[in-house]
Specification:
Tscrpt_reg_PadR_N, WH-like_DNA-bd_sf, about 130 residues, WH_DNA-bd_sf, PadR family transcriptional regulator
Length: about 130
């Protein structure tokens, strides 16, 4: 797993990494966050990720868009890439990727004033803080 340097972003001149040099959600595109969300469910190979993205977006996702973004996520330490065979790579969410998604979810939930049940609880038990069902 390679680590990216902590130099300022060339496009903005800013650096959004936290004190532990981990990427921040603002460093990622929505497309990259969607890849992380897909990998949070289970490890997948590239074409399975592509199919899930196509289902979500309702349109074709080009290889030329998917694989460079996967490589960027690997370089950031958010995704681990392993070789299944000579032509197929498997991708999995790292603990840093999971941490980033958890922080992003907590931010969104806080912004919407909702409560989230831990993974594994049924949705029928999840209730918004205003008392309404989700």
């Amino acid at each position: 797993m390679s680590t990216k340097d902590n130099s300022p972003d060339k496009s903005t001149g800013t650096n959004c990494r936290n004190a532990r040099n981990q990427p921040h959600a603002s460093d990622l595109t929505h497309f990259q966050v969607n890849i992380l969300i897909i990998l949070a469910e289970e490890d997948k190979y590239g074409l399975a990720i592509k199919r899930d993205l196509e289902t979500y977006y309702g349109t074709e996702v080009n290889h030329g868009r998917l694989y460079p973004n996967l490589d960027d996520l690997v370089e950031m330490g958010l995704v681990e890439k392993t070789e299944l065979d000579k032509r197929t790579n498997n991708y999995s969410l790292t603990s840093a990727g999971e941490h980033l998604l958890r922080n992003r979810a907590q931010y969104l939930v806080g912004s919407l004033d909702l409560e989230v049940s831990p993974r594994g609880e049924s949705e029928s038990n999840a209730v918004a803080t205003d008392g309404g069902e989700m």
